[in-house]
What does this fold into?
Amino acid sequence: MRNKPYNSPDYWQPFTKLADTSQWVAGLDTQLTQATDRTDVPLATQGTLQVCLTANSFWLLHQAMPSGWLAIRTCFDPQTLQGYKVRKQKGAGIEYEIQGSLGTFRVSLALANNNPSLLHYTTWLKPAQSFTIQALPRDLYVLDETFSPATTEGMVYVTQNGPTSGLVYLSVVKPMAGSLLYFQNFTALNDYCQLTKTEPSDTVSTQWPEIGFALPTSEQPLPAGQEICLSDAFICLIDSVPQSEFEASDQFLAAMASIYTQLPKTDTAYYNWPKAAERTIEALTESPNCGRIIQRQYYLNAYVDAMNKPPESMVQLAILVPLWEYQEWLGKPVPLADSLKQNIPTFYDARQEVIMRWLPAGTFTEDNRSEEQDPNKIDSWYLLHTLMNLGRLAEMGNLEAKDLLFNSLEFVIRAAHHFGYNWPVFYDIHTLEVIKAETAEGKGGELDVAGLYTHVMLQAYELTKDPRYLDEATTSAERLRGKGFELLYQTNITIMSSLTLAKLWKLTGNRLYFDLSRLSIANVIARMWVWECNFGFGQSISTFMGVAPLKNAPYLAAYEEAEIMATMLSYLKEVGQDVPDPVRLFYSEYMKYLLHRGRYYYPAELPVDMVCQEPREGRIIRALPIPLEDISTGWKQAGAVGQEVYGGALAYIMTTYAYKRFEQVPVIIFSDYPIYHADYQGEDKNAGYVVIRLAGTADYQCRVRLLAKGRELPQVQLIDEDDADNQPIKPLEETKQYQDYRVQGNKRLRVEWSRPRQA
It folds into this structure.
C-alpha cells in the first residue's frame, strides 16, 4: 500500500506494508487451509473459482495462477455459520443460502455480462433477531498459494475518499502479477443506510492485504425478518500490471466503463433550463441580496446576503464569461453582462501589476476571518482561474480583458518560476513567500494548478503566437508527471487541465500531453459519486454521477459541476475521434445526469427541512432562484456552505451547452448528450433541416427534445441519418410545444421542419 510522497523517485514502484494489518488477517491462512469443503463454482471464469465455509465466513476463492489467491469473504457471522446450499443456478450465475447465528444469508455470484474477468457478488441477510452492526471485516484479501498474506506485494493507486464511489484500484506483483478494480455499488445499500441511519462514506479502503468494503457501524438496529442487502460488489480482474501512470489511467478507465454497464441507472426527467436561466439572470440583476453598488459600479456577492467581505474578481468573471456566451446563444444583449464587464478593471492593482482577488481598498467586517480573507495572500488557483476567464473574454474579442490579462502575466510568470511550477496553497503577494505549502502533510500543494497555468499560457500563445508562452505552457505541463492518482486538487481545474493538455498535444504532436490529459480525466472519474443516494434527505434529490469540487469535499457543488460539464463538451469537440471510448461514455452520461439533477441545487426544489437555515456564508432565501453551493449525502442538509451567487451560472451554462438554436430555424434542439456538431440548411423561409452529431455510445440512450421557439412547433420530424430506410423516429411524447425522443448515443440525426406556406 502506497505511503510515499508524490514526488518520490520510486513513487511508481510497488511495495507492501504488513506490520499494520487488522485483527481480521491473523490466522486467516489457518482457517482457509483447514477448510475441507472447497467446492468448484460452475462459472466459466479465468482460473479456478471455489467456495468454502469456515467457522464464521462464507468464502469465494479465485486463483488465476497457481502462485496466489484472491479470497473474497462474501458474508460474515461473528458467532458461527452452520452450513450452506445452492439455492438456484441459472446461466452465468449461482446463488447460495447460508445459515448463521444472525439469520439467513443469501449470496449470489455471477460473471457480469458473461465476462470471465468481471465478477459480481451480492449478499443479503434476513436477521433472525434485531441487532446493531458493530466492527466487521472487509471482503477481499490478497494471499499466496498457502493462503498466507506474508509474501504478497502490491500497490494501491486510488481508493474511496469520503462519499465518492466505493472503489479500490490496485496491482498485485507477488506472488502473482495482475491488477483489479474493486467497486461496491452503494445504490444497493440505500435500504441498509435508511434503516441504520448510516452512510457509506469512507467505507471502502485498503489495509494490505485486506481490501474492500466494511459495513458502517450503527446505533439503529436491523429489524428481524426483513431481508436487507449488505453488499453488492464487482471485481474487474486484469491480467497485467501497468508500467506507468498513463497505462494505469487507461486501465482504470476501461475497467470503470465495464463496471458502469452493470450498474442500475436513475431515470432522468426534463428540466426547463432556459426558463431557469431567465429567472436566474433577473435575480442576479435586480435582487439586493445578490449584489451591491460600490462607487457607481455593480458587483455581485459570492453568496446571497454575504456583504461582510469585499467583492471578488473570480465571482464576477464566473458569472460574466458564460453569460457572454449565453447572450450570443440568445441572439440579444443581456444588460447584466455589460454591467459586470465594466467592473472588472477595478480589480487591477497597478502597483502589484496583477488583477486582485479582492476589490482593492475593500474592507472585511467579520471578526473571525478565514485564512483566505487577506488581500496580501494569493490562493494559487484563484488567480489563475481569474486570468483564464480574462483569456476567454479576450478570445471573444474583448480588448480590455486582453489588456488586463497581459498586464498580469508577468507577475504570474515570475511566481511560476519562483515555485518551480509547483504551486503552494497560499503565498504572499509582495514577496512570493509561501504561507501555506501543502493541502495536507505530505500531499503537496495545489498539484493540478500547473495544468491551469498551462491553460493560461496556451491562451496567451494563441492570442499572440509568442513562443515564450508556448515554452511556459510545455514546461508547466511536464510538472504534472509523476502525480498518478494524486494529481487532483480541484475537480474543475483538473478537467480544464485535461482540455488544455489535449490542445497542447494537437499543437506540438508530443504524445506525453495526451497521456497527461487522460491521466487528469482518470483522476476525476475516480472521484465521481457513481451511486444514487436514496436515504434520508436523499430520497428527495439525485446524486448519481455527481462530482465534488475538491478531492476531499463531502458535497457536490453547483458552479464547479457546471464548469466541468462545459469543459467536457469542449474536450469532446477538441479531441474528436481520438476520444477514448470510456471517456466518451462518462462525459456523455455525466452531462445527461447533471441536466437531470441540477435542479436540486435550487432551494425551492427541496423539502423545507432539507435546507440549512444557518449557512456558513450569508443566508438562504428559499424563493430566490440562486443555487445552493452544496448538496451532501442523505443525512446532511443542503446549503450548509451557502446560497452560491456565482453558482447562478449553472442555469445558463446548461442552456448554452445543451440547447442548439439557429436564427432562421423555428425549432430549438435539446439533447442531454453532448452535440459535437450542428449544421443548418435552409431550403427557403418555410422549410429546412439541421443535422446534429451526438456524443456517447450506442449502448446508452439519451433524450432529444424538439421545442418550439414560438407558441407551437411547425411540422417537424427527427430522422436517423444512418438509417437506410430514412424513416422518421416516433416521439415518445408530443404536445404543441415540443416532441420528446429517446435515441442511442453516437448518432447523426436530421431535424426537418416546415410550415404552411402563406397564400
About this structure: The chain has 15 helices and 35 strands. Residues 1-11 have pLDDT under 50 and may be disordered.
